[in-house]
């Protein structure tokens, strides 16, 4: 475990990370109680960003014509809280949002304002595609998506599209309840869409609903364990469903 500490100026935040997977993940969340919000808000309001495009340029040089290089923007403000700073395990985020709504929403607004300079930095990067947050799943209910996510995508999309960039969002969960709202966003690429049986929205329906969007999908991992015949059957059905494969 790596024990990390920082001195933000008003107090101190303290979190633990584990390296027991392919990348480090938190074993202790930054926000544990209402007293932690002011610390994170101070950090957010005193963060500055500087462009550094060399890794992207290097990756594009390595990749050549064999693929596409994508750069990323951080999570949406509410998703930052849900996925990383508060956490969703045991309903933590939703409990905090119910008990301390003003603190949660105030910090989310501060995060959003802090991240705005990154839109222009990302838009001026050499990468043609910008991945904007994500890990969207049914945990993000329609009311929250409409209030806290759609306006975020509108702001990002306006800047990115002005510079000719494509906007992608990592929607790797069950998004059936959000399908009509997603159709109204300026997102160009719905990335990592999970088709059934792991997801709850078929590729065919998604293509039909999102007529101006490209869908990047993978093969459902749960099908692999059923053996070669199951994989073959699922693949054939998937190919029939997507037809010519346009926008896939």
From TrEMBL:
UniProt cross-references to InterPro entries, sorted A to Z: UROD/MetE-like_sf
Gene3D superfamilies in alphabetical order: 3.20.20.210
Descriptive protein name: Uroporphyrinogen decarboxylase (URO-D) domain-containing protein
């Amino acid at each position: 475990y790596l024990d990390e500490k920082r001195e933000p100026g008003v107090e101190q935040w303290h979190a633990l990370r584990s390296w027991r997977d392919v990348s480090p993940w938190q074993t202790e969340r930054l926000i544990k109680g209402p007293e932690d919000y002011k610390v994170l808000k101070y950090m957010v309001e005193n963060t500055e960003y500087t462009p550094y495009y060399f890794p992207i340029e290097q990756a594009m040089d390595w990749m050549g014509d064999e693929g596409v290089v994508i750069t990323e923007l951080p999570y949406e403000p509410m998703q930052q809280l849900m996925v990383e700073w508060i956490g969703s395990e045991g309903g933590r985020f939703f409990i905090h949002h119910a008990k301390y709504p003003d603190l949660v929403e105030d910090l989310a607004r501060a995060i959003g304002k802090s991240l705005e300079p990154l839109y222009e930095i990302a838009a001026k990067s050499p990468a043609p595609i910008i991945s904007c947050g994500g890990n969207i799943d049914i945990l993000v209910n329609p009311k929250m998506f409409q209030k806290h996510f759609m306006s975020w995508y509108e702001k990002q999309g306006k800047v990115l599209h002005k510079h000719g960039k494509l906007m992608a969002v990592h929607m790797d969960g069950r998004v059936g309840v959000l399908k009509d709202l997603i159709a109204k966003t300026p997102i160009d690429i719905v990335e990592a869409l999970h088709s059934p049986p792991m997801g709850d929205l078929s590729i065919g329906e998604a293509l039909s609903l999102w007529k101006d969007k490209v869908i990047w999908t993978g093969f459902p991992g749960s099908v692999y364990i059923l053996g070669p015949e199951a994989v073959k059957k699922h693949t054939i059905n998937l190919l029939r469903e997507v037809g010519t494969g346009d926008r896939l």
